[in-house]
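Hi R.,

Here's the chain you asked about this morning:
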Amino acid sequence: MNCNQVRELLPDLAAGMDIDKGTGDVQTHISSCSSCAAKLQGFRQTMALLDQWEAPEPGPFFDTRLGARLREEMARPAAGWLHWLRRPAWAASLAVAVIAGAFVVSNRAILFPGSAEELVISVPVPGVPAEPGTAVGDLQALEKHDLYADFDVLDELQVQSDVTVNP
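And here is the predicted structure, written out as tokens:
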């Protein structure tokens, strides 16, 4: 066995666990390799120190203080979903955001010129000519010339027999 394979097994050996992978090969490698033997000895010393360690006992009034703290926490009212508004920094930042949003919405034509085009609706008044180039103006120009009355080109078209009319 090489040192890398043995180093993976050293914590288990130091803890006193039986390993299934060639115990004899591991022991012969440790007896021949001084660095692996030193690491195993270090692991065993660490395990011995951990076995001697004892958890400290809690103080004499630990249970009393813990019970009082639990009662305080149980008596505290539950925080709602708007509990963060109680903090002044959050409330101030929310107010600034709302005011800034209202300012941007109300002044979007000033802040973003050209992006908000005004919608102009013109209603044609009978007898008043519309501007040429608009749909109403073009229709008024066509009415004056009676193009539709003398337009017999559509009557001369031959209709194909396999074409059906849309329902």
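One quick note: The helical segments are 3-14, 23-32, 34-52, 62-75, 88-106, 108-111, 135-145, 153-156.

Cheers,
M.
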